[in-house]
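Your task:
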Amino acid sequence: TTAATTTTTTTTTTALSLWSNNNGDEEITDWPTRWKCCFPYLLPIVDGDGLFGQYIYQRIPPLGFLDDLLTQPLVQLFANVPFSGLLLFVALTLGTRFNFDMPRAVRFNAQQAALIDVLLIVPELIGSGFEEGDVPRSLAEPCTNLVYYAYMSAVWYSCYSNLKRGQRPTGIPYVSAYAEVMVGPL
C-alpha cells in the first residue's frame, strides 16, 4: 500500500505600512546616528534665536550668558558666510530627501528641522508688518516669547527623543506628519 503524503505550505505576507511600521517607535541604536539626528536642529536655533529670544535673554541674564557663550558664535558664523542659512536649508530639504544611503531617522529629523524653520517665517512676516514704534513692548514681548517657547520646545523635544530615548520625535503636531511624508516610504 502506498501512503499519500500531503504537503501543506503556509505563506506569510507582511504588510508594509506606507511610511513606518510602528508609528516611529523604531529604535536608533548607535550614538553617532543619534548625534547626526540632532545636527539639523541648528538651523531653527540659529534663525530664531536673536529675533524671538531677545526679551527672554534680557529678563533672565543666565540664559543670556549661555546664549552668548553657545549660540551666538554660530549665529555670527551664519551671518558672516553669505547665503549660509539658505544653503543649509537646501541641504536639509533636498540633500536628504532621496538619499537612501542615509539612515531614515537622520532624513526625518532633517525634514522636521527644516519645517520648524519654515514655520518661523510666519511670525517674522507678521512682525515685519509693524514698525518698531507701532507695537508696545507689553504686546511684543509676550508674542515673541510665545514663539520662542514653541519652537525651542519642539527643538528640545526632538533632541531629547533622539539622544535620550533613541526614537524619532514624531510627536510634534502636523510638523512630524509632514516630515514623514517628505521622507517617504523607505
Q: What stands out?
A: Residues 10-24 have pLDDT under 50 and may be disordered. The first helix runs from residue 31 to 38. The two ends are 55 Å apart (CA to CA).
